[in-house]
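WARN  no MSA supplied for this record, continuing single-sequence
INFO  ligand: NAP
INFO  echoing inputs
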Amino acid sequence: MTQIYDRVALIGLGLIASSMSHAIKRAGLAGEVVGYARSEATRQTARDIGLCDQIYNSAAEAVEGADLVVLCVPVGAMDSVAQDIAPYLKAGAVVSDVGSVKRAVIDAVAPHLSGNVHFVPAHPLAGTEHSGPTSGFAELFDDRWCIIVPDLCDDDAVVAKLTALWRGMGSNVDKMDADHHDLVLAVTSHTPHLIAYTMVGVADDLRRVTDSEVIKYSAAGFRDFTRIAASDPTMWRDVFLNNKEATLEVLGRFTEELFMLQRAIREGDGDHLHDYFTRTRSIRRSIIEAGQDTDAPNFGRKPAAKP
Ligand code: NAP
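INFO  complex generated
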């Protein structure tokens, strides 16, 4: 693979940034990858595991001379991070981010940037429930989608370079405008997470059951909700606070459907339930045909080792 950027600066060193660092190195996509994290503890961990070529104690030093700067912090922190780095960006630099919401990030970051830098937001649709610099791995983005949002950039060469970087890290790349991105993600990611959080919360409220049976029999389906509901609380708080409109729209529709299913159960309307579940089953088939999940029974899980 050929080198695409000379110096890439990653601001925030969690799951996504550390995976980017590994994936960039795997394919030789940058001359050097440097990083900055807010806390000394994270910076020290990053140094200990040899993440990046250099870890700096300030965001200003990290972005100096970088031709690509990627903001890898929670959505709610984008504003202050952009403000911190803006005076130190080199002319012609590209600023991007990996935030799970795009309109709010554009509104938070763009006002801080001067006209001589390009801003091209992106969102890799890849993640795990783990956080921090030790959780990243080079394969995270392989065969997953990355959505690039070039709303504010009319320089095709700049967008093409960022696209090449994400392809080099293993992703498939699509382009969308920010509002469309936020609606699509409200359906495919944000609302499902909220539902998982709710289901696990309900089970926890029913303490009588949770204390024993819910954990013991979790493989019956509940376990899959718990994996999603174990996702980083700061990240997901920020997602909902910053994708309010689209999430509330999808949640409204979800609630209506839930009431319809509730009524079908109460009235014993088996045809309605059967038709509904047949439709949803075909969506699962489409996801497998699109290569976005495995067809192996139980997601290809091996039986858990005995404790
Ligand atoms: P993470 O593992 O929790 O790491 C977050 C990083 O941001 C840490 O280095 C943290 O620094 C830093 N940070 C947190 N709050 C900050 C603040 N107020 N100011 C400055 N730095 C701050 O997070 P992640 O999972 O990599 O997520 C990063 C971004 O990627 C988020 O915007 C998220 O929406 C997006 N994203 C996540 C996923 C996913 O599944 N995880 C998928 C796609 C996109 P310290 O360690 O020093 O506290």
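Residues 12-17, 37-39, 42, 72-75, 77, 81, 98-100, 123-124, 127, 131-132, 232, 235 surround NAP (CB under 6 Å).
INFO  checksum written, moving to next record
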